[in-house]
């Protein structure tokens, strides 16, 4: 089994920044993709960003491109999401996930964290 624990969420004003972290433990993959997803009330879970094990491949949702940056510490199996220029529409529960495959669909990821709330006030 894999355990993922997110942290770093909170309340921030529009235009502000937050940095989310996600630490993975338990079973390890030889290579893996880690991703961030988010889910707002009444909406489906949506892709935010993903990064490959090598770090050579990154992918972002159009809605966050240029504002959010995904990164990882391979040695610590820790994932980060730096969120700048936050908007009220970024308000959601943010989840990290890990998979042995590359993808932007939630179904690609078998392991999930419990989520961390991000609230952006206008």
Describe the model.
32% of the residues are buried. 0% of the residues lie in helices and 52% in strands. The strands form two sheets. Strands 2, 4, 5, 6, 9, 10 and 11 form a seven-stranded mixed β-sheet that branches. The protein has a four-stranded antiparallel β-sheet with strand order 1-3-8-7, with no helix packed on it. The chain is mostly beta strands. The protein is built from no helices and eleven strands.
Strand content: over 45%
Shape: globular
Tally of individual helices: 0
Low-confidence region ranges: none
Encode the helix/strand succession as letters. Answer: EEEEEEEEEEE
Q: Please provide the count of β strands.
A: 11
Classify the helix fraction into a percent range. Answer: under 10%
C-alpha Rg, in Å? 13 Å
Q: How confident is the prediction overall: mean pLDDT?
A: 94
Alpha carbon gap, first and last residue: 40 Å
- Please give the largest β-sheet: 7 strands, mixed
Structure class: mainly beta
Topology overview:
Elements: E1 2-7, E2 10-13, E3 18-26, E4 33-39, E5 46-51, E6 58-60, E7 68-73, E8 78-83, E9 92-99, E10 111-112, E11 116-121
Parallel strand pairs: 2-11
Antiparallel strand pairs: 1-3, 3-8, 4-5, 4-9, 5-6, 7-8, 9-10, 9-11
């Amino acid at each position: 089994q894999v355990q993922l624990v997110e942290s770093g969420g909170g309340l921030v004003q529009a235009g502000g920044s937050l940095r989310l972290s996600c630490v993975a433990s338990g079973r390890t993959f030889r290579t893996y993709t880690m991703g961030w997803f988010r889910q707002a009330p009444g909406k489906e879970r949506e892709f935010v960003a993903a990064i490959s094990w090598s770090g050579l491949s990154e992918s972002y949702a159009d809605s966050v491109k240029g504002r959010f940056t995904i990164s990882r510490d391979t040695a610590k199996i820790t994932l980060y999401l730096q969120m700048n220029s936050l908007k009220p529409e970024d308000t959601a529960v943010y989840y990290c996930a890990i998979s042995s495959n590359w993808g932007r669909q939630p179904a690609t990821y078998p392991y999930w964290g419990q989520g961390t709330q991000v609230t952006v006030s206008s």
